[in-house]
Amino acid sequence: MRTASLVCTVALLSWNATAGAADYVAMSGQELYGRFCASCHGLTGRGDGPVAGSFKVEVPDLTLIARRAQGSYPRDRIEKIIDGRFIVGAHGSRTMPVWGEDLSRLELGNPDAERATRVIIGRLADYVWLLQKPAAKN
């Protein structure tokens, strides 16, 4: 599990070794998702990204978040999962990279880094909302 997390984190850092959070702020939610999430969760959010098979646990299908939450998208919780403030205890140790800390570290010394990180994580959460499947018909 730790190996897959390390693979994702190293991939993130190597893709943008010279890019700062300011570069990410200019990106759309879809572009950010492609950069940070698609390798594990897949382009459509179904948990079928190219590195998903390297995990010992199944990568979640992000398109079903609202369905699992009785039809309401828990945006605040999703932001907290992305940045590491919310850990799902039943899942055991954390296997998903925690982007909040990594993104703000890219701009050490920049007083706007936390604000930029919030913008980036907000755009990611908004994009994941767009991936949601409609509620199942009864």
Fold blueprint:
Blueprint: H1 2-15, H2 21-25, H3 29-36, H4 38-41, H5 65-68, H6 75-83, H7 99-105, H8 113-130
Helix pairs in contact: 3-8, 6-8, 7-8
Keywords: Heme, Iron, Metal-binding, Signal
Domain Cytochrome c: 24-138
InterPro entries: Cyt_c-like_dom, Cyt_c-like_dom_sf
Percent of residues in helices comes to 40-55%
Beta-strand content estimate: under 5%
Instruction: Spell out the helices and strands N to C.
Output: HHHHHHHH
Rounded to the nearest angstrom, the radius of gyration is 15 Å
What is the total tally of β strands? 0
* Structure annotation, total helices: 8
Ranges where pLDDT stays below 50 over 5 or more residues in a row are 1-18
The class by helix and strand makeup works out as mainly alpha
Oligomer: single chain
Shape: globular
Average residue-wise pLDDT: 77
How far is the first residue's CA from the last residue's CA? 37 Å
Major β-sheet annotation = none
Number of domains: 1
Key features of this structure:
138 residues, mainly alpha, globular, disordered N terminus
Describe this structure in words.
With 138 residues, the chain is an all-alpha fold. It has one domain (2-130). The chain has eight helices and no strands. Helix 7 (99-105) runs antiparallel to helix 8. The radius of gyration is 15 Å and the shape is globular. The N and C termini lie far apart (37 Å). Mean pLDDT is 77; it is low at 1-18. This is C-type cytochrome. Residues 1-21 form the signal peptide. It holds the Pfam family Cytochrome_CBB3. Residues 24-138 form the Cytochrome c domain. Keywords: Heme, Iron, Metal-binding, Signal.
